[in-house]
Amino acid sequence: MADNETLECVTEHERILQEIESTDTACVGPTLRSIYDDQPNAHKRFMEKLDARIRNHDREIEKMCNFHHQGFVDAITELLKVRADAEKLMGQVTDTNRRLQDAGRDVTAQTEEVIRCRIQQRNMATTVEKLQLCIPVLEMYSKLKEQLHSKRYYAALKTMEQLEKVYIPRVSQYRFCQIMAENLPRLREEIKEISMSDLKDFLESIRKHSDKVGETAMRQAQQHRTFNSAVAKQVHTGHYSKPVYSLSGRTHTHISNGLLTHDDAGDEEEADEEVLTAQDLVDFSPVYRCLHIYTVLGDRETFENYYRKQRKKQARLVLQPQANMHETVEGYRRYFNQIVGFFVVEDHILHATRGLVTRAFTDELWNMALSKIIAVLRTHSSYCDDPDLVLELKNLIVICADTLQGYGFPVNRLFDLLFEVRDQYNETLLKKWAVVFREIFESDNYSPIPVETEEEYKLVTSRFPFHDPEIEKQDFPKKLPMSQSVPQIYTQVKEFIYASLKFSESLHRSSTEIDDMLRKSTNLLLTRTLSSCLQNLIKKPHIGLTELVQIIINTTHLEQACKYLEEFITNITNVSPETVHTTRLYGLSTFKDARHAAEGEIYTKLNQKIDEFIQLADYEWSMAESDGRASGYLMDLINFLRSTFQVFTHLPGKVAQTACMSACKHLSTSLMQMLLDTELKQISMGAIQQFNLDVMQCELFASSEPVPGFQGDTLQLAFIDLRQLLDLFMVWDWSTYLADYGQPNSKYLRVNPATALALLEKMKDTNKKNNIFSQFRKNDRDKQKLIETVVKQLRSLVNGMSS
């Protein structure tokens, strides 16, 4: 066992020694450590083994040195021999080198000169090469400066782009190129600022030139429309053949809107003028240039936003009218010219710039403008009271709408606005014609028109459709039943229709619609304006009975002429009156109402005149006996009524009869009220007799048939109440009255007990006052008792009626 362990130990030590000999000294540590980790005292045995190995190697080294020692000695001997030859050779080399250095010194100097020249030549070639690269850059930069100086900014931007992308990168290592590269952004900003300044100048210029642009565009549209109208009239001859009269009485063949002259020579000159467009009047190059510049600079969106924002601001300024625009047509024309000019420019920009403005933007701008225009025109047209100015406004609206419609803008709302303007126009016409009618009525003499000759008769009938076979058969001189105001009013109604027709032209409406508008406006003239003037005329205090009679006659003839007015409108519009939707004229009701008002005023004035005469009555109610003749005031009243009713012969029969009956009833009522006046306390029998004489005159007047047409005693029945009352007191037939009271065939059927009682008490009081000694006379005492008895019975009747 111990032998085996010794053998293993020896084998391990041998392995370690071999490992130490073959391994790098840096790795010996772990190997040596393994020796100390083995069995105790193993390192001693290893040290012994190591010493034996060292001694073995020393013996091998010694053997080798002994083997090579003679060769080493021989080599040293030979080396000593060579040293002498080497020193000799060294001397020769040194000498040769010295001589060579002396000989090559000149060559070296020349060689250095050649090298220096070659270096200069190379530097020059390099410089030329670099300059050839730099010269195009400098030329381009010089070109850039020249372009900037000549304001060719778009070309300058292209040059900058070439410099940045092509030329400067080739020589970017040089300082001047870096300076150039640093300057280019600054130059771009300068170009942007300059182009923006040009754009601002353009915007300011276009704001000033919009008026001229709009005027030119509207003139061209007007010329085009006039040409089309002329062609249409040649095709449809006879349509609207009536001349169109202005409100001032002049005749025109063209619509007067201020854009064209009225004479044909002026039209021909304008037709010969060169047709100008927006680009002929406005230089759009600043917009194009600025748009290109911003597009090249990649900032197109900023430019578009700025342009649209500024144009919106300008649109608001253009749409803001002057405060006194409604006073003159020039104010309206300038307003429309600016609006049309603005949108003509926008339309040109839309089609010429490809995206600077879009259709959506222009539509939005137009819708905003349209709302503002309509609001402005509504406001300002409401201030206008001149129909000529309203008509000019309508023409301007039409030509403005036609012009913008030609550029593709929707204008239906403008044509709808024209209906409101038409109403305003009709209102101004109605106001103007109200003044005309009032002047006609004020200047009329309200007497039949005297006609001396055939020419005068034809002149009147040419102005008014009057046909009366009986009057035509009469010899000259003769009189026409109506007064001078009738043909004047008829003529003015026709002039009003002409004036209304002027507004209907160029509205792109059918003949039926125009016919309907004319008839409606004429109806307004008849039913509102003329009717109001007639009503006011009838109510005027200075219009007497004669004038009222003439007014009734006039309205009758005007009523008969309404059918001719309808024919007149039909001839103008060529629309058959049998058309389903044709509006009828309401003149018949207008003149009937006026006639009824005049009739009522006749009745009122007659009664007022009767009251004036009644107020002149001066009865002596205590007289003992009557004068034997009628009172003077009553005779004057009857004479007045006779002369008045003679004037009524031209009136329709029923009117005259009604007036006469009304006057008699009012006279009877007034006389009855005079008897029963509460302030009248006493009435004598003599006063009753005098009053009876006056009533008899009234009855005689009624029986004389002052107005023909009454049957029998119809007119006398107006005084029947007075007659029965007076007969009762004159005859003193109380027994009959009291006995027959309430019977249908009573002699005093129309005498009311209360009326008889009131009058009887006035007579009773008179008897007491005037006959203080009547109690001593038997007859007077009996009469007084009778009166008291009758009074009691009448009171019982009155009380019975009230209960």
TrEMBL record:
* Homology family: Belongs to the SEC15 family.
Keywords of the record: Exocytosis, Transport
Q: Which GO terms describe its cellular component?
A: exocyst; plasma membrane
Q: What region holds the Exocyst complex component EXOC6/Sec15 N-terminal domain?
A: 49-218
**Name by which UniProt lists this protein:** Exocyst complex component
Record's keyword annotation contains Secreted: no
| Signal peptide coordinates | none
Its function, per the record, reads:
Component of the exocyst complex involved in the docking of exocytic vesicles with fusion sites on the plasma membrane.
Q: Name one GO biological process term.
A: Golgi to plasma membrane transport
Q: Record's InterPro entries?
A: EXOC6/Sec15, EXOC6/Sec15_C, EXOC6/Sec15_C_dom1, EXOC6_Sec15_N, EXOC6PINT-1/Sec15/Tip20_C_dom2, Intein_C
State the species of origin.
Xiphophorus maculatus
Question: Gene3D superfamilies in the record, alphabetically?
Answer: Dsl1p vesicle tethering complex, Tip20p subunit, domain D, Exocyst complex subunit Sec15 C-terminal domain, N-terminal subdomain
Q: Where is the Exocyst complex subunit EXOC6/Sec15 C-terminal domain?
A: 414-762
Has UniProt tagged this entry with the keyword Ion transport?
no
Q: What's the superkingdom here?
A: Eukaryota
